[in-house]
Amino acid sequence: MAKMEIAPLRPWEDFFPGADRFTKPNLADLAKWNNRVVSNLLYYQTNYLAMAIVVFLIVGFLNPLGMILGGAVVSLVFMGSVWGAENKLMIKNFKKKNPTLFVLAVMGASYFLMSLFGGVMVFIFGITFPLLLVFAHASLRMRNIKNKLENKIEGAGLKKSPMGIILEALGQQEESFNQIQDFLESKLKE
User: Fold this and answer.
1) Which residues fall within 8 angstroms of residue 160, CB to CB, at 6 or more apart?
2) Burial level of 127, CB count in 10 A (0-12/13-18/19+)?
3) Contact 82/88 with Cβ under 8 angstroms?
């Protein structure tokens, strides 16, 4: 079993290098877009965590009770969905066939519960806004060779990271092992 590794904090020049390394995703090819997002989530996970913490702290400073409530609701919904996907066949099949809809359902359930408690605005700005920023960056940032190689190593099971574990729990794997082997072989031939 692979040992848990925390990804390094990527330099600002790599994380936000300029307009030439950003492009809109091809909406006609959802698999390729999903692959880009998952790859960037794995590669820039520490940068994304730092960005989310900054936004979370700013909003938490402005409304601490709402942030605690929002964090508890989202955590409980996430843990409940992972437990349900592991123990309930119907949920497990839905997650396997529709991983993106599964993630959207988890987010929708969190939003619904937060609206019952009247903390929707705190939820939107404190929890969803950082997620939106992360998703926007992961969708628009083009991958580089270093990014792809790091993700192939994690995908092959040689190392594990916190984001890799979360994505695996949500059913968002990047590529199959055969594609990983093909990639590594092509790079070795170059």
Assistant:
1) 2, 3, 4, 5, 154
2) buried
3) no
Into how many domains does the chain fold? 1
Angstrom distance (rounded) from CA 43 to CA 148: 8
d(CA 77, CA 1): 28
The pair of three-digit structure tokens given for residue 171, joined into one six-digit string: 């059913």
Residue 1 lies in a domain: no
pLDDT by residue, tens only, the chain of 190 residues: 456 777 778 888 877 777 677 888 888 887 788 778 877 888 888 889 899 889 888 888 888 888 788 778 878 888 898 898 888 888 888 888 887 788 888 888 887 887 777 666 776 777 778 888 888 888 888 876 766 666 666 554 545 667 766 766 666 654 443 344 455 455 555 5
Separation of alpha carbons 48 and 71, rounded Å: 17
Instruction: Flag whether 49 is in a domain.
Output: yes
Residue 15 lies in a domain: no
Provide, for the chain, the percentages of residues in helix, strand and coil under a 3-state DSSP scheme, each rounded to the nearest 5: 75, 0, 25
Model pLDDT, residue 36: 83
Q: Is residue 6 part of a domain?
A: no
Tell me the pTM: 0.61
Expressed as residue numbers, the domain containing 52 is 28-189
